[in-house]
Amino acid sequence: MPSLTLLEIALPTPLRRRFDYLPPEDMSESELQRLSAGVLVRVPFGHQEMTGVLIQTKTHTDQNIEKLRPALAIIDQTPALDSALLELILWAADYYQCPEGEALSTALPVLLRQGEAAEERRETCWQLTTEGKGLPAGALKRSPKQALLLEALQAHNKLSRSDIAALEIPATIIKTLTDKGIIEKTFADETTPKTPASIFRQAPLTLSDEQQIAFDQISFGQFQVSLLDGATGSGKTEVYLQAIAKVLEHGQQALVLVPEIGLTPQTIARFQKRFAVEVAALHSGLNDRERLDAWLHARSGKARILIGTRSAIFTPMPALGIIIIDEEHDGSFKQQDGFRYSARDLAVVRANRLQIPLILGSATASLETLNNAQQGRYQHLHLHARAGNAKPAEIQLLDIRGQTLTEGFALDTKIAIGNEIAAGNQVLVFLNRRGYAPTLECHDCGWLANCPHCDVRMTVHQTPRHLHCHHCGHQRPVPHKCPSCKSSRLQPLGQGTERSEIALRDWFPNTPIIRVDRDSTRNKNAMDKILNEVHQGEPCILIGTQMLAKGHHFADVTLVVIIDADAGLFSTDFRGPERMGQLLLQVAGRAGRAEKSGRVILQSHHTDHPLVQTLFFKGYQAFADLILQERQITQLPPFRYLALLRAETKRPEIALEFLKLARHEAESIFPSSPQLNYLGPLPAMIERRGDRFRFQLQFNSAQRKPLHLLLTQLVEKLDANALSKRVRWAVDVDPSEMG
DNA sequence: AGCACGCCGACT
DNA sequence: GTCGGCGTGCTC
């Protein structure tokens, strides 16, 4: 008698264990033998049904065999995840102390999780119905667009959605003709992908000497991490493109990760213009079906290049030959909830396992990466020259201590903006705070508009006029009278982009003022419209948040104004100064990119602060070295390894009690020592958020290994404790935000 | 996490 | 009389 085969499955629950199932009832023994890890399985779970990932088949279970239920179905015989990727995800779940099932489900496209078959969709097309075919040429004359579509279909038999769009026929016409019974939906013919004669659509550029030297240092076919260090416009992208060309020539695939706001149609177009191979993109603008399609194309090898944001690091690519991470210092590579992984760090692991090169590009590399380069673990490649012979911008630190500011602008700043506009140039004003003003204050009693659910002030917004909490989303009307003293003298306090926009409009009534922040670009295509307008090159003033600093090129901007260079200098988060430096340099880099030379004005109350001085007069490397020295003294990353145990509850005592227990347990596993020590429980930076009180316990270790060991044992202990069920808690390994 | 079951307050 | 509040218990 053959021994019973059981399925060990990881399910998307926070429960840190796997579940055993009997095979589906209709499954034959031979089919069962062929099952491999990574296959998706539909199973009953409690009163629900869910999709899990098969980890292995086995013959023994520690459960009562009577309790096992049969799985419902194997979704697809071919594994959704190949074994290398499955192992990477399981490794990451362990490293980040995240339940396996949760990690696996973050890594899988939503549709697969919902039980959809992992099949490529055939493109929908439209064709003429029998009735439609009976229509004479030149019919439907009264509607030119309808006639055009009819004519096109008479000529081409089948047209896809994009074919029709290319004829400038709106989607409503498709619906009208479908309703009239003239056309009908069908599928595209199965096309065999044609192998392009050349991988190039456009010949590669000739590399500069510096680019060539950098490129020559990249070794293919083996594990190697390169920090490609060069300012915006120094030609990093050309090095990426040629490195990609190299792996494509070997029949391999390339994975490119970019920051969340960096994945614009222009970015994708840049790769498509160069290469004649299929380029797939994974970004937040896609719907679930489009995501699955891009994912499937990468997995089948049809797509040779995949460009994506953070989660694209988990895409199966059977012939991956290189990983490139652009703007590697960007915070969006670390997920901030659920499975708190760092795509950049996992890229190092993935590249190492596959023995392929990884390129980390940045002009303002993270201190972790810089330190790795200094220690010789990564090679450090430099690109100094700015493309097109552009001169570096001239930096002016404007000391605003004691100066009268109108709407946040010093008089000199205002004059400089006016001069630049008069000379026919464009100006960029950077203020990293959206809304009209950070809060509302009562001039008579000092009342401040606090959020009823969080320990933060509510931001005043002007259009539409309301108070908005940027932490929980709570909104309310702006009061006419002070709720505390009934005074009507309520005034907005501080400066936001909306307010600066209004002030600039008032001062420069004949110049277009273009605001760029999350509010002004909320609508689809809003950003494209803005970019088009700016690229016309007419004089204008751009005012916006960090959205302006990342990714977009404004060739005609000759003056960059930074309203408040001090934000971040004294932040509670130890990474504040590092982030400030990266952001300021990025903004400053927007000036003078073309023939025109640029100028940057930084308004600051701390022009003589050593970090500010170093950053602007000695450069980023010196600035980074200064911070690194500090980090070494204060025992912080990258010299030490951190983890946080975060806990939140509606009643503060419970979260606090939970963390006290956690600390006690931690002490009993590893007594606190200089090698591995504990801090807390402490209240989070914003103690109450969305009506929940938040606390955290900090772990600081000289090495990764003991910290990981401690966390694993601690989580197990906590999981077994009843208190843990009454608390929303999570471990954050290598946290990027300490709040 | 979901989702059930289970025992106490204000309303169609 | 019910609808529904969230406490707690379970999921192979």
UniProtKB/TrEMBL annotation:
Matching SUPFAM superfamilies: P-loop containing nucleoside triphosphate hydrolases
Subunit structure: Component of the replication restart primosome.
Gene it is expressed from: priA
UniProt-recorded name of the protein: Replication restart protein PriA
The entry's keywords: ATP-binding, DNA replication, DNA-binding, Helicase, Hydrolase, Isomerase, Metal-binding, Nucleotide-binding, Primosome, Zinc
Enzyme Commission numbers on file: 5.6.2.4
InterPro entries in the record: DEAD/DEAH_box_helicase_dom, Helicase_ATP-bd, Helicase_C-like, P-loop_NTPase, PriA, PriA_3primeBD, PriA_3primeBD_sf, PriA_C
PROSITE patterns linked to this entry: HELICASE_ATP_BIND_1 (PS51192), HELICASE_CTER (PS51194)
Function: Initiates the restart of stalled replication forks, which reloads the replicative helicase on sites other than the origin of replication. Recognizes and binds to abandoned replication forks and remodels them to uncover a helicase loading site. Promotes assembly of the primosome at these replication forks.
